[in-house]
Amino acid sequence: TLSFQNRRFYSDKVAKFTGQKDASGNFPVSIIEGDGIGPEISQAVKDIFAAAKAPVSWEPVDVTPMLIDGKTTIPPATIESIERNKVALKGPLATPIGKGHVSLNLTLRRTFNLFANLRPCRSVAGYKTPYDGVDTVLIRENTEGEYSGIEHVVVDGVVQSIKLITREASERVLRFAFQHATEIGRKKVRVVHKATIMKMSDGLFLKVANDVAKDFPHIEFDAELLDNTCLKMVTDPLPYNDKVLVMPNLYGDILSDMCAGLIGGLGLTPSGNIGDQCSIFEAVHGSAPDIAGQGKANPTALLLSSMMMLRHMGLTEYANRIEKAAFDTLAEGKALTGDLGGKASTTDYAQAIISRL
Ligand code: NAD
After folding, report:
1. Ligand 1 neighbour 285 (Cβ under 6 A)
2. What pLDDT is stored for residue 135 in this prediction?
3. Model confidence at 100, in pLDDT bands (50, 70, 90)?
4. Which atom of ligand 1 is nearest to the CA of 299?
5. Atom of ligand 1 nearest to the CA of 288
6. Using CA atoms, how far apart are residues 198 and 24, in angstroms rounded to an integer?
7. What separation in angstroms does the CA of 43 have from each of 158, 163, 262, 271?
8. Ligand 1 center from residue 178 Cα (angstroms)
9. Helix, strand, coil: what percent of the chain each, to 5?
């Protein structure tokens, strides 16, 4: 049977931050440092925030999986912290492949009903790629679709993984996409789908998109097949700079890594998991076990995620200042990490940003 127990019903407002300052005048933010390179890149972000005197106090939380009533979950104290602070910054969490506990990333998204995954991708000056000036905005449905976690062995040698699409979750993320386009001044929303094959599931997503579009007459709405989008984006991504793309879960996961490839890789791409009550900001990349503990990781993706977080919290001036220092450091090119062709360590790069604040 399908469980909808963690779902809150759809709300038509754009998620607004409602966290409160503590006695010292700072906003408490829950921080999950994560696995692999997580602690190194989290430290870089904390050092940069401290140097910029950003009014944030970090509340470290633990997400070591626990079994409660036979289900894998995260510690109740962590849930309580994120619910209280309304916002968290998260490092990458390693997920066992093909067996073991369910993905903690999925558990977090479901627990807090983080229905939209916002993944902007912008070229940085100082790192040469085939295209300059890429500026894509991709929104991924974040709670169901191919990630519903409903899988069965039918008989030996035959398995089923179910793609679940509901009108409720589709409407929520589509409405968020139109609202976000309005907020950031983009006049076009494009649904990316495969309703030619997934006639019922993507068909429903597309139908809901057509319905929601009627409530946003100032936004131009169209749809494109996923394979076509991939071909066109790698051929010339710039025509996507005026659009917000929105799509079911798996397509967004894959297409956003492709977008990352267009601008210089996973070290540069941030994201926000947005819910009505809480939001969790994290880099698109994973725990990078191949370079963990060596001081080689690029903290830009987590830093830009934390800039999205500051803007979400209304701390826009801090975000602008730190972001400028980071982009100027990248443009100068003297303190680039290895993934961008440089020799700087994670801390060298963080210090270079700090020296520009
Ligand atoms: P990955 O993103 O961790 O790494 C892919 C490649 O990119 C590696 O070569 C890595 O060194 C490089 N890379 C990634 N981030 C970098 C950075 N900040 N600086 C420099 N190089 C960087 O993907 P993977 O190796 O497929 O996954 C490793 C683990 O991370 C898996 O357990 C996976 O499930 C998990 N994962 C977690 C998240 C998340 O927490 N949101 C996302 C993706 C993958």
Report:
1. yes
2. 92
3. low
4. 18
5. 3
6. 53
7. 46, 38, 27, 18
8. 30
9. 40, 25, 40
Residue 65: the pLDDT is 81
Q: What is the mean pLDDT of residues 138-159?
A: 93
- Residue among 287, 303, 306, 339 to mutate when testing ligand 1 (max atoms within 8 A of CB): 287
Contact 88, 58 (CB under 8 A): no
pLDDT at 6: 31
Q: How far is the CA of 171 from the centre of ligand 1 (A)?
A: 30
CB burial of residue 129 (10 Å; 0-12, 13-18, 19+): middle
Contact 267, 300 (CB under 8 A): yes
pLDDT of residue 15: 67
- Residue with the smallest CA separation from ligand 1 atom 22 is 267
Ligand 1: centre distance to CA 286 (Å): 3
Q: For a pocket test of ligand 1, which of 106, 254, 266, 303 has the largest count of ligand atoms closer than 8 A to its C-beta?
A: 266
Q: Residue 88: in which H helix or E strand, if any? A: strand 87-90
Q: What tens digit of pLDDT does each residue of 246-302 get? A: 999 999 999 999 999 999 889 999 999 999 899 999 999 999 999 999 999 999 999
For tokens 């912290």, what's the residue? 81
64-73, 178-187, 203-212, 324-333, range with the lowest pLDDT: 64-73
Give pLDDT, residue 1. Answer: 29
For ligand 1, atom 36, the nearest C-alpha belongs to 286
Residue 301 to residue 205: CA distance in whole angstroms: 30
Is 288 in contact with 92 (CB distance < 8 Å)?
yes
38 lines ligand 1 (CB under 6 A): no
CA distance 327 to 299: 13
The structure tokens 């289900």 sit at 71
What secondary structure letter does DSSP report for 152? Answer: E
Give the Å distance between the CA of 149 and the centre of ligand 1: 21
